[in-house]
Amino acid sequence: MAESNQKNLDIDLEKITSEEEAKKAVAKLTKAIRYHNYRYYVMDDPVISDAEYDKLMRQLQKLEQEYPDLQDPNSPTQRVGGEVKEELGTVKHPTPLLSLKAAYKKEEIINFSETCQKELNNNKIEYVAEPKYDGLSIELIYEDGNLTTAATRGDGNTGENVLSNVKTIAEIPLKLRSEKNESPAKLVVRGEVFMLKDEFNDFNKKREGKGEDPFANPRNAAAGSLRQLDPKTTAERPLHVFIYEVLLCNGCDFENHWQELKAFEDYGLKVNMTQSQKCDDIHEALRYYDEMAEKRDELPYEIDGIVIKVNDLKDRDKMGVRQRDPRWAIAYKFKPRQGTTNLENIKVQVGRTGKLTPVAKLEPLNIGGVQVSRASLHNQSEVEKKDIRIGDTVLVERAGDVIPYVVKPIKDERDGSEKKFHMPDKCPVCNSEVVMSEDKKTTRCPNINCRAQVRERIIHFTQKAAMNIQGLGKRRVIQLMNANLIDSISSIYDLEKDEIADLERYGDKSAQNLIDEIENSKEQTLQRFIYALGIPLIGEHLAQVLAQNYKTLEDIKNADKEELEQIHEIGPEVADSITVFFSQEDNLEQINKILDAGVELQNPAYREKDKKLPLEGKKFVFTGAMDEWTRAEAKKLVEDLGGRATSSVSGETDYLVAGKDTGSKLDKAKENDVTILKEAEFKKLIDSKNEE
Ligand code: IVH
Hints:
The chain has 692 residues and is of the alpha+beta class. The chain has 5 domains: 2-78, Orthogonal Bundle (Helix Hairpins); 88-333, DNA ligase/mRNA capping enzyme (D-amino Acid Aminotransferase, Chain A, domain 1, 2-Layer Sandwich); 338-444, CATH 2.40.50.140; 451-602, 5' to 3' exonuclease, C-terminal subdomain (DNA polymerase, domain 1); 619-691, Rossmann fold, CATH 3.40.50.10190. A hairpin with a 2-residue loop joins strand 15 (393-399) and strand 16. Helix 2 runs antiparallel to helix 3 and helix 17 packs across helix 18. The radius of gyration is 29 Å and the shape is globular. Residues 98-100, 130, 132-133, 137, 192, 244-245, 307, 326, 329, 331 line the site of 2-(butylsulfanyl)adenosine.
């Protein structure tokens, strides 16, 4: 589909005066909306913002209202949601998964409450106000307490079957808790799957490090992660969930929504009670909106507004639904955090690992109270895909503490003076010839002594979350490097007070302060030190995981790939990165120098295994599907008891756990005299060991 005529669709409804003109506009809007549905729902890669999409949809609705003859039964306004990825298999929803009417102004909310009052003949209506999470809507079905179905919204009537993927999300219980309330015969709930902002940033960095396309925002990342064909991929993604609606319940007698939310907690479903609020009237809901708008940046997840819902369930029934959305609820969206500005230039930055990143220099603009002057453009392929040129007017979006990004150029504003951008052939810092991957997604400077790389490594090493050398921020590091006082991480420890004191903006006292800071940072935890080393793919979390599993740095250095992969959160790529890092002479030399300078590592994170765990030394292999657990869950059961789970059967294997549809592993286990456990026997073993 030609994209250019889809993107900059700007129709002025005021100018439409005849049915003929309206017909043309309807056709254009329909085509554009279909295209954007496809980008959003199928590709998880939208090219316009939600606000722009909403505008197209509202324009089409308005035209269809004014000219009812033009309404096609297959118009996008008649559908609830989006498209379905065929490969996943489909699920017919027991009740349609509706959308929400969106409001952007206070008056629209007052109107909503007046409609509620009129229809319910009631002046005192209770509402529940909740965050509007910016993720992917999900339907979960529990039968007799067991999770039996999980589906995306799809077109509202039929969604994609994502059960195996959903089962990898630890926050979603496979079985409802029934201590307080007995599980209903059938419970259908709806919630949102999302990524935390921090985890999204780490995840995107890793993707970029591997030369994969970064996701534009946490929502697209969550959607892309859940709609994977291989659940293993989903399992590696940091996904979370909040449940917020009952769609159907056989065997419940809730009177209101607030009760439902509380019951979810008892069932072990993740609800966000702390950020949700019962409101006595609409004004309280409006105050909640203001509070949430203030809080928005502090929340660890993205929200794009609030949802106001009538609390009483009988009242909801009385009000009923429109075509796409219920009449008893409304989304009150925040102002889009977007703006347009001039893209003045594209600079190329060299990162810690030598990766070259194009960065847009923007004419400063204020988006939602924050001054924005730069935005990452990720890589050459991304620049070409979006057709971003130097001199363009661009649409920029800021999402919480996620780095601002360029949504698209406004092509209509071009005057022909804009210039296409190409990554340089040489590193802008050390002039080495750079290497670009064939797909143009990564460009690297191969020179590990490139000053930019060294500088970034030092800045990474000294930062707060790493060695926490407070007087050594980015500016100071650059100053010390320019004065030739430092040229590697370990050279920090050779700094002398007098040479620092001679530098501009330093004096005797501040020089001594820096020396003291460096001295104080020498007593350090292994966890921070591992992070500080800047091993590719090792963020703060994995550094912690390593420190929990290995007592000393020496132990980590000596760990081989296979051993590292036994750790729950470490996959082949990460294991590779660690072993490669510790096999490089330069790195070992740096580490030795740092330790010789007196850096001392303690490891309080290490999980002392003084008591031998019941399955210590036992090796398990799993084959075939199990009823009660996914592979990852079963693996965790074994690991929590000190055992190990490996992927192939050998003479060293102690147990083969055989689920349904077993394959060649079973034969191999028989050959090797491995004890074979059926699922029930495995359960018994785990239960008995847990009691030990
Ligand atoms: S209730 C029938 N509550 O917003 C009403 N939806 O634009 C069902 N959303 O697709 C929705 N947070 O994915 C509801 N607290 C919340 C929500 C929420 C986010 C999403 C939902 C829906 C979209 C509608």
